[in-house]
Amino acid sequence: xxxxxxxxxxxxxxxxxxxxxxxxxxxxxxxxxxxxxxxxxxxxxxxxxxxxxxxxxxxxxxxxxxxxxxxxxxxxxxxxxxxxxxxxxxxxxxxxxxxxxxxxxxxxxxxxxxxxxxxxxxxxxxxxxxxxxxxxxxxxxxxxxxxxxxxxxxxxxxxxxxxxxxxxxxxxxxxxxxxxxxxxxxxxxxxxxxxxxxxxxxxxxxxxxxxxxxxxxxxxxxxxxxxxxxxxxxxxxxxxxxxxxxxxxxxxxxxxxxxxxxxxxxxxxxxxxxxxxxxxxxxxxxxxxxxxxxxxxxxxxxxxxxxxxxxxxxxxxxxxxxxxxxxxxxxxxxxxxxxxxxxxxxxxxxxxxxxxxxxxxxxxxx
Length: 366
Description:
Layout: E1 3-8, H1 17-29, E2 33-39, H2 41-48, E3 58-62, H3 74-78, H4 83-92, E4 98-101, H5 105-115, E5 126-131, E6 138-141, H6 151-167, E7 176-180, H7 190-200, E8 206-211, E9 222-224, H8 227-253, H9 259-272, H10 275-290, E10 298-301, E11 306-309, H11 316-331, H12 334-344
Helix pairs in contact: 1-11, 4-5, 6-7, 6-12
């Protein structure tokens, strides 16, 4: 059976060109994939005409409206024929197993909550992302969906993160940490201290607090925090990687070696210092390790369906890998495993006894 993935062809800074290109790339690499391109059909077909699509399994579903990148979540309610809303309806009706979008993060989350709902017992869905470390990456959540969670929300985030790490990423028995300003159990805000106690009692492989300076050391495979802090951490990492790339480029080209000069000088440099040849693949691996495009997008854990949200500035490679992440989540039974995990982890439920009673709307940081 193919895995049917809805792609919001109108989502992102470069739609529909980049989403269409990324979808075709994914179709060539993932044999079991079937893509449903949702958006303005005439524009989608114009992009498809620029590529060879022979033998690829996809279809187009027309949606007349677009939720623009600058619009607020209210657009999800007013634009009922937008690509986001139409795509979510396809997942809800069972015509597809997953939804992927590079569109406005808050709008995608709102559309998922309105049309898919939450997994029973989950109070707040959380955005997760793969964070590069010195060893294998870790899963960091929440990174923007909830700015003011309660302690039991962080416990639910941890449970969902563990299931995603095990079932989708293939990391057995992942260690769980909570982001704090010190290693000692008593450190951190009231939220962190109370969540620490719940995590200790949860039966998860909880290792305690993880400081910001240790996040990249790979002390834990799953690290939980509130959405405000997580968003700051991720944005800081993105800025640092971008700075390093510009800095290295500047060092190679500004100091008397422009691109032509570098090309002419490189053979002589390699003869004089053969170690540079070994260093270049290492640098390439480092930047690939830090490149968000390798991971594609952030899964929205806790909604009643598979939803992956990518950067608005994503290129085709990022779109392809976001689709790949969605396929893995479907094949790993992510939604079903989260439900099973919640049933076996009764302490993760809110004091109300049911996630349905926590009616505070999800917040988001783009």
